[in-house]
């Protein structure tokens, strides 16, 4: 074979030889490992923790408040506390979407938790009200001034008046609200009055504490 023939044969073989990629196999292996690793991380990533519920002033929490039959309970209509000059009508209150006791819409009016015992019935009746608003003091502004022995008078729809005597006044951080003591069952008729207290958290637009008045039927 002449030199020219040998040269043409070599050129022909080079055109038909598969191209060599010495690192292709390594690259494919690395990519496969990365994909598998990414999948493993995604599967192993724990689910984000549930958002903690915001601290609420009067949320019943796990306590099961005894429901009163509508026909048996006599709803309250007014609350008076002579020692602090409190005299307010009462509106029925329910729970909001978070399970917390909804506050009265009117800052000048107190409310009664209608899902629990009525004042005068066995169990802890709960009254709630605002302490103030942007316009000034609200219905329960002076609640913290009460002391043991002060009277709380609750008028009812049947014309009767139930008298309670304050036994103690407590203040608790909202994230440590005494749910059991406020909503837990009692052997006799008792009353709780709840409002805000302590320092005002401006960024949160809320007071840091709750004031709770405990009273027993006289």
Automatic annotation (TrEMBL):
Keyword hit for Iron: no
UniProt cross-references to SUPFAM superfamilies, sorted A to Z: Sortase
InterPro entries named in the record: Sortase (IPR005754), Sortase_dom-sf (IPR023365), Sortase_F (IPR042001)
Gene3D superfamilies: Sortase
Keyword Nucleotide-binding: no
Keywords: Hydrolase
Gene Ontology MF, one: hydrolase activity
Stated name of the protein: Sortase family protein
């Amino acid at each position: 074979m002449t030199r020219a023939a040998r040269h043409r044969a070599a050129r022909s073989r080079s055109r038909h030889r598969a191209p060599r990629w010495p690192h292709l196999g390594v690259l494919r292996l690395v990519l496969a490992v990365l994909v598998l690793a990414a999948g493993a991380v995604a599967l192993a990533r724990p689910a984000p923790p549930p958002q903690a519920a915001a601290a609420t002033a009067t949320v019943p929490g796990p306590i099961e408040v005894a429901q009163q039959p509508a026909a048996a309970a006599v709803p309250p209509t007014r609350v008076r506390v002579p020692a602090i000059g409190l005299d307010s009508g009462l509106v029925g209150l329910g729970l909001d979407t978070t399970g917390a006791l909804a506050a009265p819409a009117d800052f000048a009016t107190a409310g009664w938790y209608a899902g629990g015992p009525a004042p005068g019935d066995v169990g802890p009746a709960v009254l709630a009200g605002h302490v103030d608003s942007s316009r000034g003091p609200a219905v329960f502004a002076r609640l913290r001034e009460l002391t043991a022995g002060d009277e709380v008078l609750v008028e009812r729809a049947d014309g009767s008046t139930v008298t309670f005597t304050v036994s103690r006044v407590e203040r608790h951080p909202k994230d440590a609200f005494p749910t059991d003591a406020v909503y837990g069952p009692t052997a006799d008729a008792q009353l709780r009055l709840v409002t805000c207290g302590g320092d005002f958290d401006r960024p949160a637009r809320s007071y840091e504490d709750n004031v709770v008045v405990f009273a027993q039927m006289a």
